[in-house]
Protein 1
Amino acid sequence: MKRYNIDVAIIGGGAAGLAAAIEVKKAEFNPLIMERDLELGGILMQCIHNGFGLKEFKEELTGPEYAQRFINEINELDIPYKLDTMVIEITPDKKIYAVSKNEGLIEINSKAIILSMGCREKTRGAINVPGFRPSGIFTAGQAQRFVNIEGYLPGKTIVILGSGDIGMIMARRLTWEGCKVKAVVEIQPYVSGLLRNQVQCLEDYNIPLITSYTLTKIHGKDRLKGITISKVGRNFDQIIGTDRFIECDTLLLSVGLIPENELTRIAGAEISPMGGAVIDNNLETTIEGVFACGNVLQVHDLVDLVTAEAKRAGKNAVDYINERFGKTQKEQRKIRLNSGENVTYIKPDYVNFNELLKNLIINFRVKHPDRRIQIQLKDETNRIIYKLKKPYVIPSEMNELKINIGNLEINTECNELIIDVIPQPEPLID
Amino acid sequence: MEKSDEREVIKTIRCIVCPTGCEIEVKEIPDGEIVFEGYTCKRGLEYAKQEFSEPKRILTTTIRVDDALHPLIPVRTDKPLIKQKLNEALKIMARTIVNAPIKMGDILIENITNEEVNIIASRDLKKCKNIIK
């Protein structure tokens, strides 16, 4: 068995892995990217539509262009990577076992590990649809790979379940390729993707959008013959007598993404109930020296945000090797970060106070939309230690707080911090 | 208010410049003048004017490649193309086969529909035997 010794092992060569590797190399440490596909770039390579990079590059790129810019930098910096290489195990002492056609089983010893495996799509099993199991049912991303990379069409008459951005973009893509997209069906009373995609992907091509409806039956034994959809009530319960049959040979599911954390679990890192590893504000998992970033940690709205998070993971991995935290500071103050009013998701799980760190970055999602709100960071005694006004919050958008740690006054006894999103107190009238 | 009632709404445009999504109404007043109402920023007005007079889109699709890792190369128009020309452009691209090696930004079809818009490659693609085929 071949053995390698490197500084930072990076698992996954998509948007997150590429950005993390570049940061590690720029700090003059040796990264190694392991990628299971035949090329770098990850899912960006099949997202051939434009709209990527407005934050990172200040221009609008297609997915492959966004990835290619990073791949070019990887090559310029001479960063090593292994393609067609599947990591099968990570041990708690940071040994990695991987298999590939060229090398067989290999062992990689690293000082730090960055987990950047991305996420995968929810399948039919995740949404419990009764009926037969004919061919012709795909996830939207799977169909996207067939159409945009491998050169196959999934079918001719198509219904898309879920009005997320991937679903709507696939509706337009398949229309351009000559398919008939009969409808996009959404269980919510509103579109879940961007307005821009609703206008340019559906309305431009007169593709019907059916909201407050869900899939209730699949017809066809060998090949899909059609689906039944039914109207749903306020609690997404099916309303009897509202069934509609739509004839189609293909159904695409665009019903959500799940971080792909099998390796994280094998390594023994704690996974939070929301999916994604439990991390502190350094993006470090519960295993010392193992960091997580990108969609394997939390599903981001934009690739630019994946890149930003991955750069932080790369820098932090280097800081860890330089013993700037973790190893040398065993008695760090670890404070649990919890969600309060109207907050449904929060990362990091812990805040680790340490004078070497400058910014505390908190990501959170809200339960329901609200306007004119105040975001508050409170300690367990309800003392507000940081607050910020915002014009609006919506559940589909991840919020980011960037707080300079030096400006925070935290009680030495504090064990818990809470993020609250509350309606702004009315201004007092004199 | 009475005055605006005389105006006929000839088109409603949903602004996609930002997530606010303003509904912009295009109205024609009796003397034939076209006015825009409902926008809340300058960029929105510009978008609505363009969208009303000559809507344009960036077109992103694929072209067949004969001799590379993948049978397709992702491509895009280098500028927004007039909406009515999208279908014509798609048909031309469906008939086109290109050869590797290709570099990102290479012009694969020049001046595709005589609108001074080129089709450029979205990525690099090395020359090799197509192994996925």
Protein 2
Amino acid sequence: MLRLFLLLAAALFATGLYGALSQRAVVMIMMGLELMLNGVIVAAAAFWRYAAPAGGAQVIVVVVLVAMAVEMAIGFAVVSALYRARRAEMTDMAADLRR
Amino acid sequence: MAGSAPAWAVPLVPAVLVGYAAAAVAGDAVLAARSAGRRVTLAVLAAPLAEVPRLLTEQRRTTLAADRTLWRLGPLAVPAAGVLAAVVVPFGNVVVSRMSVGVVWFNAMEVLTWAAIWMAGWGPNSVLSLVGGYRLVAQGLAYELPLMLALISAAVGARSLSPVSVAAAQGGHLWFAVWMPAAFLVYLASVLAFSFLGPFGYPAAGDLAGGVAAELSGPDRLVLRAGRWLLLAAGAGMAGPLFLGGGAGPLLPAWAWSAVKTLAVLAALVWARRRVPAIRADRYAEVAWVIVIPLMVAQVLVASAVVLALGGPP
Amino acid sequence: MTAVLLAILGPLAVASGLLVFLLWSMARVTIALLASFLAVGGLLIGLGLAYLGVVVILMMTMEMVIMAVFMVAYMENPAGLVRAASSGRRPVSLAFSTTVFGLLAAGIFVARWPHRAGAPLQARMPLRAGGPPRDATFQLGDALMGPQMLTMVTLGVALLATMVGAVALASGRGRYDRFGDDLKGRPPADPVRGGVGR
């Protein structure tokens, strides 16, 4: 059972990785990152249930949830600031340092 | 996680919820008739129920390039959220799911309304619906944190996240509505806010020709309208165990007291709906974040201090 | 019971995750991601982490609705009416992520995971023999307030920094725009007056 849950976590992680690598828009890359963190949550919960039912495994899930929230907040703030400064919402538009 | 619920309790939840919602709709019709100066007869009470077959057989309106999946899913999710939220509400001593985190589940189910109404606003590819959907998101951001803190303060008072335990903790002690008045008032206001009725009816307001409900017709319109009243009934049903002592009372059995308390809260909410005008979200968003949230944090602090000092609820 | 939940919700989560990058309409993409998160929340509840599962459902619904607002605001094709521009990196990304999945799967099946014979004892947590701890929520709260207090403090400070930083980054107007050059203009020059009247 642990192996099946970890397989699910790996599948979610790989799907998120595909998205984070192949998308151009910043918001879509963030969605890929969210899916990867989703996979980490499933893995941590499976470890809590089947390997180590200590408080620490649940704290890992909490830390990942907070990381997701922080990533989304700062990510959207950065996208808003970029868009306002340069009307650029794609990563290739924002890559140059020129004005 | 879920305790042993008797098999007859599972279809009881939607049935009882629909009963409470019908009572609320009837009360609303009575108040509307009285404020319009008409006599209250049986026809007035039956008029909202006569809408049901009319809407079920009405032809569905279509719009250009509508996103049909999201448009159908949105209004369907509203009554689903109401019924799912009511699954953890104890009616007397009967509860379908003795989830240990029932209070948080109730909160999560009413947040599904955000997604549902946003989808219902986006689906029909219509400006007025879209504005209505976004209005609910703005309103949601304002009421959600105060509601969470109100629920937390009730849970802190009972030292448990299960509504059954919160109701049981008020047996023989003061009701939570008495020594946590700010939490109770904020909870009642939030029930009106998440069912977007009355003063918080901004997303479906008249200045948007019905807002989210503008392009809905036929069964979808019925589902959305029913969903709002079901959410109101679920919220009123939860007010009993959380703040008013659940099924406790001198003479009547537990389910009767639970019904009396739910109907009393429903009556108060329906009266407030008729009395208080709809407020724009930008007028109360800053108030909610700058005044109400610190007030609720202070309320949680007071509740925690009282429980720690006395070893339990007073 | 857990196996049934995994069999239903697991493929649902992965399929919704894949749909996120295959659908054209940005609104549907956000709802697909929400479906993936709801499936993971259900799995967490089924694993016995009731509080964390419900919190995942709660937080992710709110986050996805806010993300939908931003998607519609900033994406070039929010309704999916026009075919989305392809990025040209798709084949390489697909190959790379498939390779990563293969390596992870191989590692999962080759590694010898510890088999939990009995649950570890904790003084304040009476346990059923061989099963998960009786109240996972209490265990989480006890851990965060006790041995993992440093984690909690760090998370709190990080969230505070995020709030301040996000508002500072995202707001286009500062004190001088609101109060004038000498910071003395009252009431502040806002496009929308707030309810408090400051």
